[in-house]
Automatic annotation (TrEMBL):
Protein name: Oligopeptide/dipeptide ABC transporter ATP-binding protein
Top-level taxon in the UniProt lineage: Bacteria
InterPro entries noted in UniProt: AAA+_ATPase, ABC_transp_ATP-bind, ABC_transporter-like_ATP-bd, ABC_transporter-like_CS, Oligopep_ABC_C, P-loop_NTPase
NCBIfam families, A to Z: oligo_HPY
GO molecular function: ATP binding
Native source species: Streptomyces atroolivaceus
CDD domains, A to Z: ABC_NikE_OppD_transporters (cd03257)
Keywords, sorted A to Z: ATP-binding, Nucleotide-binding, Transport
Cited SUPFAM superfamilies: P-loop containing nucleoside triphosphate hydrolases
Sequence similarity: Belongs to the ABC transporter superfamily.
Disordered: annotated segments: 314-335
Higher taxonomy: Bacteria, Bacillati, Actinomycetota, Actinomycetes, Kitasatosporales
Length: 335
């Protein structure tokens, strides 16, 4: 349905002076496909490029290089009107914090009507009926329509934001950390709602989170980002169950599931600057397996069964995470 092909995004560095040519390499050579009805999880630490990738997928950010293909057509070669109308309605977005994503002065009824009005969908009566249908889809009672966002709980606000994202019957929802601003008690409800909607509506979804355990629960496939690069990608069971990249292993150990006994990997070295990324593997400075071979060039793509891909010179090959077996090294300590 949508494919990123060799996408690079470089921003002008904020810290540079007026005439500085310094660039932040927010995304480097990202290739990723989301098929109809599939949930792709995107994980990585803060600043690794998750939101940039979300902005590229939703057409809010034009790549510096590379292509965004929507049903095989280059998004940025489409006429502006087609891009805004057809692509704009095919992709819905849910942001992290519903308190800031929803206009506090508009009642829910108007918030849900806005996209239908802007895209001139159906008659006035049909739009009213759609608004009620949307509310029902996300499990909110009818009286919510008269409420202002400030009169709702965080979980209810996020349900309204999800309903708004669904208004134009999108094929794809991009959800950027949709539960991290919510109370722990309602996170599971919102996650279950997203899974339920995917099943009922056949939606594709890109779910972005720094928490690989949450993503593992939801996603069909996972892509792991590190300093703007996708370093591992594959079926969720392969990436989270038998990671090949040491960084994925470290992410998994940071939020161990209750059933696993892997020791925690605490990464110690510095994260390289995104303004001046190293020529080799960007994880070298924190990796306990790194040697000279890792610094020469960014590791080529290696593939395993089921479309499992990784970029690492010393991948984990045993089929099980090494955490719990490797003792602490200068680049890694355990806690
Ligand atoms: N408009 C911009 N101008 C300059 N640099 C930017 C801009 N937007 C993002 N960046 C930089 O690009 C890199 C990737 O940022 P991005 O927001 O995509 O990461 P992220 O993984 O979503 O982080 P977080 O989880 O903290 O939101 C970071 O180094 C960030 O500082």
């Amino acid at each position: 349905m949508i494919k990123l092909d060799g996408v690079h995004v470089r921003h002008k560095a904020r810290s540079g002076g007026l005439f500085s040519r310094d660039a932040v390499h927010a995304l480097t050579d990202a290739t990723l496909e989301v098929k109809r009805g599939e949930i792709v999880g995107l994980v990585g630490e803060s600043g690794c490029g998750k939101s940039t990738l979300a902005r590229v997928l939703t057409g809010l950010q034009r790549p510096t290089e590379g292509e965004v293909l929507f049903h095989g057509r280059n998004l940025w070669n489409l006429p502006g009107g087609e891009r805004r109308n057809d692509f704009g309605s095919a992709v819905g977005v849910v942001f992290q914090d519903p308190s800031t994503a929803l206009n506090p002065r508009l009642p829910v009824r108007q918030i849900l009507r806005d996209p239908l009005d802007v895209h001139r969908r159906g008659t006035r009566e049909a739009r009213e009926a759609r608004v009620e249908e949307l509310l029902d889809l996300v499990g909110l009672p009818g009286h919510t329509l008269a409420a202002l966002p400030g009169q709702l709980s965080g979980g209810q606000r996020q349900r309204v934001a999800i309903a708004r994202a669904l208004a134009l019957e999108p094929e794809l929802i991009v959800a950027d950390e949709p539960t991290s601003a919510l109370d722990v008690s309602v996170r599971a409800q919102v996650l279950n709602l997203l899974v339920d909607l995917r099943e009922r509506l056949g939606l594709g979804m890109v779910f972005i989170s720094h928490d690989i355990q949450t993503v593992r629960y939801l996603a069909d496939r996972i892509a792991v980002l590190y300093l703007g690069r996708i370093v591992e990608e594959g079926r969720a069971a392969d990436v989270a169950g038998a990671p090949s990249h040491p960084y994925t292993e470290a992410l998994l150990s940071a939020t161990p599931s209750l059933l696993e006994t892997t020791e925690r990997i605490v990464l110690t070295g510095p994260v390289p600057s995104a303004t001046n990324p190293p020529p080799g593997c960007p994880f070298t400075t924190r990796c306990w397996k790194a040697d000279d071979a890792c610094s020469a060039a960014f590791p080529a793509e290696t593939s395993g069964p089921g479309g499992h891909l990784w970029h690492c010179v010393h991948p984990q090959t045993s089929g099980a995470p090494s955490g719990g077996r490797i003792s602490a090294t200068p680049a890694r300590s355990t806690a």
